[in-house]
Structures are given as C-alpha cells and as structure tokens.
Design brief:
The complex is a heterodimer of chains A (about 750) and B (about 120). Chain A has about 750 residues and is mainly α. Chain A has 35 helices and ten strands. With about 120 residues, chain B is mainly β. Chain B is about 5% helix and about 40% strand. In chain B, the strands form two sheets. A six-stranded antiparallel β-sheet of chain B has the order 1-2-3-9-10-11, with no helix packed on it. The chains are: A mainly alpha (about 750), B mainly beta (about 120).
C-alpha cells in the first residue's frame, strides 16, 4: 500500500467517519480503503484511539469484499490486528513499521508466496525462519513439477540465499532471546525460539545435522554464530575428508591425517606459487588420479609458459599416445595446420599431406605463414612419429606391442584417416596395455604370440565381467573387428571417450567429491588446446562422423557422471557451486543439454516451451544449476526438518524409560536394552574411550539389531560409531525413542 | 571369559555388516563389520562387508556349515572355523571389527584398536 502522508484535515474527517462505521455491511470499498489509509498514515499524535479500532477490525473480518480492497490493504488489516493484540492497554495506537511489514509478508506468504520479494535484512528472526521454511516447501514443490515460472524460482533461490547470508545474525538474535528468557522453561514461546534456532542452524548447515549441532554447541559455549559456523564447517569438512581417505584407502585415522596433511601442503605450495585454489586442487587431483609427477609438471609449466594444469594435460596426453613432448607438440601443430598443408603445392585438397607437401612449405617460407612453416618443420623433425602416423589407417595390430604404430616408413602420406586411426589405435593400446598378455592368451592359454584372435577377445570379455568399463569397451570395440567402423564408433563414443579419459588421462576430469556431491571439473585451457585423451577420441570420432569437431566432448564429460575419477580427501571447498562454473569452457548449448533432466523438469512444469530459444540456454543452465544445488539442499533440509531430531544430549536423555543396563565385566562399556529384547535388538551401547575415540563412542541398534547412523537408518561403520563429545554428550539418531 | 559356543550357521545377513546367525546353541550372532578373509581350499578370499559385491558366493558357502572352532587372539583377531573354511577377522583401528551377542546376554565386542569388551551373561 502506498501510505499517504497524514493530513490533519483528512485525518479528522475520516476519524469521524470511522467512528460512524456502525453498519459494516453497507460499507463501500472506498470507505474501507480510506479508513485503512488513515490508520496507516496516522502518526502517534493523530492516531485514532485504540478503542475505535476493534470496530474497524470487525468490519474488515466480516467484509466479503475484502479481496477487492487489495492484498496490501488486507495485509495492513492483519498488521493492525497484531498491534491491537500486543498493545491492548495503550490508549492511542502507534503504527509500528516492523509489525506492518511482518504482517504484510505473512499475508503474502500465505496467499501469494511467489509474489514475495527478497527478505529485508532486518527481517524479524522468527519471520525469517518461517520464510525459509516456506521457500523450501515451495522449492520442493517446484522440483516435483509445480513450477510457476523461471523468474519466480530464481527469485526464491536468491531470497533464500539472502536470508541465509544473515543466518548467523539470525542465530545470534535467537540465542539472545533464549538467553534473556525469564519466563517459564515450559513456555511454548521458548520452545519456539529453540526450535527456530535449530532450524536456522540446520538450514545454514545445508541439512548437515552434525554441523548444525556443532554450531549450536559452540554458540552455547559463548562463540558468535558466524565464527561457530566457520569452525563447525571446517571441522566437518575435515572429518569428511578423513572418512573418505579411510574408506577409500583402507588406512587408519592417523594415516589418513598424514595423507591429508601432505595433500594440503602440496596444494598450499601451489597456491603460494600463484595458482588459484581451484587450479591447485585440480592440478593435485590430476597428478594424483593420473599418477603424474606434479613437480615435473610445475617445472614444465614455468619453463614453457603453461599453467600447471595444461602441463599435466600435455603429460597425460603424451603418455596416452606414447609420444615424447616434442612429438606431441609437432603432432598438435600438424593437425592444426593440416588444411593448409593438404594442397600446399596446389591442386585439389585430398585429405592427405605428403612429405613432399611439408618439405615444400619449409622450402618456400615466403608463401606460407611462419606458424605453418614452423609446424611443417616440427613434423619433419619427428620421423618416428611420422612413420607411426602414415601407416596407421591400415594398422590393425593394436596390441602388437607396447606402442601403437609401425615405426618403419610406409607411404609418406598422412591422411585424415591415418590421424583418426592413430588416435584411436594409440589410445586402445594404452588403455589395454596392462591386459595385453591376458587378451593374447585368453582363448588358448600358452605364451603370448602377439596375435590376438576374435576368440581371444571374446574369451577375455567373458572372463572379465568386472573389468573397468573403459577397458571392456575398448576390447568390445576390437572384437567388432571393424576397427574403424564409423557406425560403431558413433554409437559408443561416450563410453570410449570416458573410458579413455579415466584410464589414459587427459584434460577432462569427472570427479566425485564425497558420497553425495558429484562434481564436474572440465579443464577449459586443455580442452581449448584439444590436447586431452578424451578430447582426442571425441574429436576423432566426431570428425569421422562429419560432425563439428568439438561437439560431444563436453556432453561426454558432463553427462558421464557415473564414470569418474575420485580423489579421496580433497578439500571440500572446491565442491561449491563456483567450482563447477569457474574455469569452464562451456558452450551454452552443451551446458543446457548436460542438465537436460532439470530442464525437462522446467518444461514439464509449464515454465518454458519445449523448444528452447538459444538465448535462453544460459539462463536455464544457471537456473538448473541453482535449483539442482538449492533443491537438493532444500530436500535434505526438508527431510531433516520433517524428522524428529534429538540434539546433543546427556546419556540419560538418550536412554528410553524402562531400558535395562548392564556394564561389561571389564568396564569397557555399558549396554542399555529394551526389556525382552535379545541379541542386539533395541539397544544402546556406550563404550569407553579408545585411541580413535578419546571421549568414547556410542552404538545405537534398531529393532532388527542393525546399527543405525544419525539419520536413524542402518548405516556404515563410520556413520554408526557416534563419538562422545568432550562434555559427555553425544548425538542421537533421528527418530530415536526418548 | 565368555565362550562362543559351537553350532551351525543357520542364517547369514548381509548389509553394512555380515552376520552369522545362530552360531551358538544360545542363538548367538556374530556380526562382522570389519574387513575379513575367508580361506577355503588353501585360497584366501578378502571380504569387505561394506562392499560385499563379489563375495556373495564365498559367504553362501558357509551357510548351514558347522562351526567347529571359534577363537580370539590376544590382539582381538577372531578366527572361526566354519565347515572347511576359516574366517579371520582382524581388529580395526577405527571401528568395531566384530561382535558376538548371545540370547542369554553374553556379549563380546572387539572395540576399535582390538580391546575386547566382555559381558559374561546372566
């Protein structure tokens, strides 16, 4: 409502009018509007008497035309009700902006949730919490298909972020309220404050109950919420990393700590040397995952003016193709200038470059660019590579030796088919390097003879159903015999590309950070250079099929989330949304396609047309990413909020009434169990300290005797061994009877 | 010292742990959460309860077999002789490797690090 400035004359006139409102059903809408405006325009000096207001409120509540008055006026009426309810003893009514704003928001939230604008930073904590709950419900509805519009969802996502940006302030305010509470401990208002604070903590912690608990524990110990959140988040991230390393590497906690310290030291030294944190983490991941020498990569990067990631990509690619650095450089230059060399001496292009073509370029530098001459000379200087290339198209001896390609001269003519065949043959050779002997002898045993038969391939596939997918794809590809069957390649390019990427290494890395956060990192620089193994394969396949050379690479990478490289224990900070988008070379079309599931959700909800205009794709990408993150986040929180959560409790609080205890004969632990239960059913076991649990630990078992984690469901070892806090309290699984 | 009585493996439960049910006459359960090995015919098969895929066949081979012996080493290692197989469960530094719980209240827990917590029963 646009609140009018109080005018004494107007006020007087309408104050008198209000006093005459004894026939509400005959009230005209305009009268109502004016009356409300008067109320809201009133300063304390001119405000109507409190005793006048009930009449107006009764009138508002009975009015069947209230909707016609408009949302704002109605909300204002609610605001008045609030004021009256809180200040019955006041003789004069004092408009309270905060109350009015809150009431207005409540009305909008209840009646027009999509119309809410971003919350004001000064929003009342209780309202902010309520609004967060509303937003999460709306986002959950949106994810189930009830999309109102892209703009509305974006607005909700932004508003949610804005409120949570002040989450620490909210917690501090709620904590102050709890501390200052002087009423009964059984007062529902206090319960509400406590519940609100827990909810904000849970929302701030993105649904991570352990983080939320730790956050509030620190706040209760006197810390500010902001620093407490940082501490809790950092501790939780550290624990996750330790857990990942312990689970993945099967090492003890102490060893996992050492692994992470070494990891952090390496990453920190790269950051110190000028890399961004994202580059440093990705460089470490590449080196670790692909078993590359990070120190060597850093030295090469410094020497050759590359980024460390680019240097690693080149090392991985050179290894995958069995090339030296100089050969790889010559190969890249040759490919990039192939078209210019094709008819260097005139005539029609024939998709082939001869030695004579190259020599002609070098011998006639005035007719070509310096880059072309340099490229021609580079490939002429690498006779072994040239020989491997010029016979590649007819070379089916993929597993004949450790290196693909005949090093003896052939026809001195390097064709597009040679290059394509070389890229695939070299990668198949590399991918299958560790299996070469097994495949060779799979059918009939005996010593390897260098001859791989169809039966060998079939026998190997039958005997190795659990081999890595990339390896099986490579063997299947060979088995189909038509090694360069365009149709087969087109049909299988994703698996082949991803298999090669994972095993041979390259510029594309698909990683999973933790158990719940799939993270995709694509190295933009390396992709641009076309240097990676996955990129090489895709480029080759695409070329064969006549598609644009870059199509598919990112789709392969981004859609191939099931196959990836996991480097346990990497810092959690890079799992943020920014890490997903920073440094990517992503064409908008591919990006949108990669989130087709989310886009489909938008489409099915009627938010946009099925056929996407190009200029919408970036927006959808942003939105889909945001909703993916926030939606999953909201889902976790929604689940958590829907569950009865017991926060850190004293041992006695965790033991249901009537359960019977028995202490171990050697005092190492105590069991509490429901009467009549046997074995491990319905049991809590509180154990004494060990090296791994300096304060002891607790196991909770359900009615079936299964150990449960904090979600209340049967869980992993790490989740179901619940550490006892230094103060003797411990967390209790959701839904645990109390 | 409590004892793990000898009987047959009537049931095997797979989840986040591997449980051999009714190992003793009292209806006891041995629950293994740590990595362990099963040695059969001179061949040793590693089993990880949290990643059980691929180990099903070897575990099913223990079903309905007689438990001939059950011993616990000084370091907490549990050794079960089931049929012709030997199940060896070493202690874990960070988690409980195995537990035994009988219906009559007897209970043994191999705590993180290998120390045993023992409830001798009623």
């Amino acid at each position: 409502m646009s609140r009018v400035t109080a005018d004494v004359g107007l006020l007087d006139a309408h104050a008198a009018h209000v006093a005459e409102l004894d026939h509400p059903r005959r009230l005209r809408i305009d009268d109502l509007r004016v009356a409300l405006e008067v109320f809201f325009a009133s300063g304390s000096a001119y405000g109507p008497r409190t005793s006048d207001l009930p009449e107006l409120l009764q009138l508002l509540r009975r009015s069947t035309a209230i909707d016609a008055v408009g949302v704002e006026a109605t909300a204002a009426a609610f605001a008045e009700a609030e004021v009256l309810a809180r200040a019955p003893s006041l003789d004069a009514w004092h408009p309270d902006d905060a109350w009015i704003e809150r009431a207005r928001r409540r009305f909008l939230a209840a009646n027009r949730p999509w119309a809410m604008e971003a919350a004001a930073p000064t929003m009342d904590p209780a309202d902010a919490v309520e609004r967060l709950r509303t937003i999460d419900r709306l986002l959950a509805e949106a994810r189930r298909g009830g999309w109102p519009s892209i703009a509305a969802v974006e607005a909700l996502v932004e508003e949610r972020a804005a409120i949570l940006a002040d989450g620490s302030v909210l917690i501090d305010a709620l904590t102050d309220g709890i501390r200052a509470w002087s009423g009964s401990e059984n007062d529902p208002v206090l319960d509400r404050l406590v519940a609100d604070r827990q909810d904000v903590a849970l929302l701030l912690a993105a649904g991570d109950l352990a983080v939320a608990r730790r956050l509030l524990s620190l706040v209760d110990a006197g810390a500010g919420a902001s620093s407490a959140f940082d501490t809790a988040t950092r501790e939780a991230a550290h624990e996750r990393r330790l857990g990942e390393v312990m689970d993945t590497d099967g090492v003890s906690r102490a060893e996992a700590i050492r692994v992470i310290e070494a990891m952090d030291l390496s990453i920190a030294s790269m950051i110190e040397a000028g890399l961004t944190p994202e580059e440093a983490v990705v460089a470490f991941a590449m080196a670790d995952g692909l078993d590359l020498d990070l120190g060597l990569a850093r030295r090469r990067a410094a020497k050759e003016g590359l980024t460390v990631v680019e240097a690693l990509a080149r090392m991985a690619t050179a290894r995958a193709l069995d090339m030296t650095d100089d050969e790889l450089r010559a190969f890249d230059l040759f490919r990039s200038h192939f078209a210019g060399f094709d008819n260097a001496q005139g005539g029609r292009p024939d998709d082939a470059v001869s030695i004579d073509d190259l020599r002609f370029v070098v011998a006639n530098p005035h007719r070509f660019t310096l880059a072309q001459v340099t490229a021609a000379q580079a490939i002429l200087d690498e006779p072994v590579l040239r020989n491997r290339l010029d016979s590649a198209a007819g070379n089916t001896d993929v597993l004949d030796s450790d290196v693909f390609g005949d090093t003896r001269p052939a026809d001195h003519l390097i064709s597009v088919a040679d290059i394509d065949a070389f890229l695939i043959g070299a990668q198949l050779n590399h991918v299958l390097a560790d299996h070469r002997i097994d495949i060779d002898t799979a059918a009939e045993g005996g010593p390897a003879d260098g001859f791989v038969s169809e039966r060998d391939l079939e026998a190997w596939l039958d005997a190795n159903p659990d081999a890595p997918v990339g390896v099986r794809e490579a063997v299947a590809h060979m088995l189909e015999a038509q090694l360069y069957d365009r149709t087969w390649l087109e049909r299988n390019r994703e698996a082949l590309a991803m298999g090669a990427a994972v095993i041979a290494g390259g510029v594309v890395i698909v990683m999973t950070a933790g158990t719940a956060t799939p993270l995709i990192v694509v190295m933009g620089a390396g992709f641009a250079a076309g240097a990676g193994a996955a990129g090489v394969t895709t480029l080759g396949v695409n070329h064969l099929t006549g598609e644009a050379l870059t199509d598919g690479l990112l789709e392969n990478s981004l859609s191939g989330g099931a196959i990836g490289m996991s480097v346990a224990g990497l810092p959690a900070s890079w799992t943020s949304a920014s890490a997903i988008t920073q440094g990517l070379t992503v064409r908008s079309g591919l990006a949108a396609a990669s989130f087709s599931g989310e886009v489909a959700g938008v489409v099915s909800g009627g938010g946009i047309d099925l056929v996407l205009p190009d200029d919408w794709e970036d927006e959808i990408h942003t939105l889909a990413t945001g909703v993916e993150i926030v939606g999953a986040f909201a889902g976790a929180v929604e689940t958590a909020l829907d569950t009865t959560i017991l926060w850190a409790v004293e041992p006695a609080e965790a033991i249901p009434n009537g359960w019977v205890s028995r202490t171990a004969d050697n005092g190492s632990g105590t069991v509490w169990q429901a009467p009549g239960s046997a074995g491990n059913a319905d049991m809590i076991r509180i154990m004494e300290p060990t090296d791994a649990y300096p304060n002891g630990y607790v196991r909770f078992h359900n009615a079936h005797g299964q150990p449960v984690d904090l979600t209340g469901r049967p869980g992993s070892r790490s989740g179901s061994h619940i550490p006892i806090n230094p103060d003797g309290t411990f967390d209790v699984p959701a839904g645990w009877p109390s | 010292m409590t004892s793990i009585e000898l009987a047959t493996v009537d049931q095997i439960i797979l989840g986040h742990a591997v449980s051999f049910v009714r190992v003793g006459d009292g209806g006891g359960v041995v629950t293994i959460e740590g990595d362990f090995t099963v040695e059969v015919d001179g061949e040793t098969h590693p089993v990880s309860p949290e990643s059980i895929v691929g180990s099903g066949a070897i575990l099913l081979g223990l079903l309905h077999q007689v438990v001939h012996a059950a011993t616990v080493g000084d370091d907490g290692t549990l050794t079960l002789t089931i049929g012709s197989a030997t199940v060896t469960v070493p202690p874990s530094a960070d988690f409980e490797a195995w537990t035994y719980a009988a219906e009559d209240g007897r209970r043994v827990v191999c705590m993180p690090g290998g120390e045993l917590a023992v409830w001798a029963g009623d």
